[in-house]
Amino acid sequence: MAQAAILTADPAPTAATVIDLGHLKRMAFGDSSLEHELLQLFDRQAEILIARMRASDAAVVATLAHTLKGSAAGIGARNVERAAAAAELAAARSPAELGAALKFLAKAADEARALIAAMQLQDE
What we know:
The protein is mostly helical. The protein has helices at residues 2-7, 15-18, 21-27, 32-54, 58-75, 78-90, 95-123. Helix content is 81%, strand content 0%.
């Protein structure tokens, strides 16, 4: 039942929970071009992995969610990281829990991808 608490932990995402820019800056050693590249890679990876998760069985979902969790941690995408961890755990449970976890993960990833897009527009 701790799973439900993870899935509803952040009802109103903030920019800091969507992507922690301070963390990203530290991970990129203050190199703004590397930050930009990491965000672009995460954006593409999130899109691909979410699509694959939707079309895969639970064992594959667990593996893909684990991968996305690590990528999200790397750029400071806290909500995606938490949602991917929840999906990874839900994969070992019921299909209903997995479906709810994937929906939550997709929403968190969409929020992160939207922020990345907005940041890229600002850079132009």
